[in-house]
Design goal:
- The chain is an alpha/beta fold and 409 residues long.
- It contains 19 helices and 9 strands.
- A hairpin with a 5-residue loop joins strand 7 and strand 8.
- Helix 15 packs antiparallel against helix 16.
């Protein structure tokens, strides 16, 4: 995008923007006041970490909480294997992230800010440390940087809190939630780095400006990681409400062979056919109404010669390996599902495998100690719908249509 946006200005791939350039381009950060949270509520900014929860409502729940001085936990773990957006943002625009963190701390009355950055995101951590060196000393004194484990579940907000508290990144779905009792037992605002960067822009230019960036009634922009069968993979900033087909075309479209499907939202997202994807608006409400989610902003385009069953089997194997291993649905259920889908994908299924997969995928959700099995089940259900014919080919005919396309090419 051009004009004023998260990635406007110096080339994001050219390294971190320093404080002088940041201030020259965007101006000083306004002094936060009591109107910031209402402005965020009016802006309809929703969290960019995956859940799309209204940011203003989340901040208000912490600001109004009793139980000690709150903490702001800046979530830059980004454990999704296909996502690069948060890393690019931290590496290229660290001052925007720190601006958002400063505003959050002021708005909720926090005395401490924790930068929670993936231990495998070395360039991002370096950029944030360098940017901190350019910030006022009073701000630096209340900020600490914590290396997050390089595991898929480590970025979930309760896992992040547990790691900061106890050194173990275990997510849970049971109360209390971080806004009630989080880091050090205090109310904790856990916010994704992209969400905070948007807050820094809204504080400067207003909620009406932010709403005006979207298309078709949607608010703001979103960072997307485009990968797979596109000519210009990487991180793109797009207006919310844009049709997904336009986003893919904007990244150079697909390769010479047509796309068969799109994985939207990463490994906790879902598959949809290429035809469905083209007319799908990237708007949280519209996506929810259609049973989809933008999740962590991944758009992975699958070419026709790649098999959706095989890709789904690979993802489920990864998710089974990355579980927190703290409950039966993950340790046994998710592993059994991954094994059954793997057998079907390899052309060596057991007779009842497809029936098992269908039954188990419906039984797994809501039974775990956290939402990890829910995400895996959602991905599988979307694959069973999108690749229904391909699953039948693999299970009944023990052959792959995508493999036949590769052989004919």
């Amino acid at each position: 995008m051009t004009g004023i946006s998260l990635l406007a200005g110096p080339d994001p791939l050219g390294g971190a923007e320093n404080a002088a350039s940041h201030l020259s381009r965007l101006g000083p950060l306004p002094v936060p006041g009591p109107g910031l949270i209402p402005a965020l509520e009016r802006s309809d900014l929703r969290g960019r970490g995956g859940a799309a929860f209204p940011v203003g409502r989340k901040w208000r729940s912490v600001a109004e909480r009793r139980g000690g001085s709150p903490v702001v936990l800046v979530n830059g773990a980004e454990g999704e294997p296909l996502s690069r957006k948060d890393r690019v943002l931290m590496e290229a625009r660290p001052h925007l992230v720190l601006d958002g963190a400063a505003l959050a701390a002021a708005a909720v009355g926090a005395g401490e800010v924790v930068l929670y950055v993936g231990s495998d995101h070395g360039a991002a951590a370096v950029a944030l440390r360098q940017a901190l060196g350019e910030r006022p000393e009073a701000e630096r004194r209340r900020i600490r940087l914590v290396d997050a484990p390089a595991r898929y579940v480590a970025g979930e907000e309760t896992a992040a809190v547990h790691f900061v508290n106890d050194g173990v990144a275990l997510p849970v779905s049971a109360p209390p939630r971080p806004y009630e009792r989080g880091v050090g037992g205090r109310p904790t605002l856990v916010q994704n780095v992209e969400s905070l960067a948007h807050v820094a822009m809204i504080a400067r230019f207003g909620d009406q400006w932010f709403r005006g960036l979207g298309d078709g009634g949607s608010s703001g922009t979103a960072l997307l990681t485009l990968c797979g069968a596109v000519r210009r993979p990487g991180v793109h900033e797009v207006a919310q409400g844009t049709l997904l087909g336009q986003v893919i075309d904007g990244a150079g479209g697909g390769p010479a062979d047509p796309a068969s499907a799109v994985l939207l939202g990463g490994y906790f997202g879902g598959w949809l056919t290429a035809a469905e994807a083209r007319i799908l608006p990237l708007d949280p409400a519209a996506l929810r109404d259609r049973g989809h989610t933008l999740g962590c902003g991944v758009v992975a385009v699958l070419p026709e010669h790649r098999c959706g069953v095989v890709e789904t089997a690979r993802i489920l194997e990864y998710l089974a390996d990355q579980s927190a291993r703290q409950c039966g649905p993950c340790v046994f259920g998710l592993r059994a599902i991954a094994a059954a889908v793997g057998r079907v994908a390899s052309g060596a299924p057991e007779t009842a495998d497809l029936d098992r997969i269908r039954r188990w995928s419906g039984e797994l959700s809501g039974r775990g100690a956290c939402h990890h099995p829910d995400g895996a089940a959602g991905l599988l259900l979307s694959a069973l719908r999108t690749f229904a014919e391909e699953f039948r080919h693999h299970h009944e005919l023990r052959r792959c249509s995508a493999a036949a396309l590769r052989e004919a090419a």
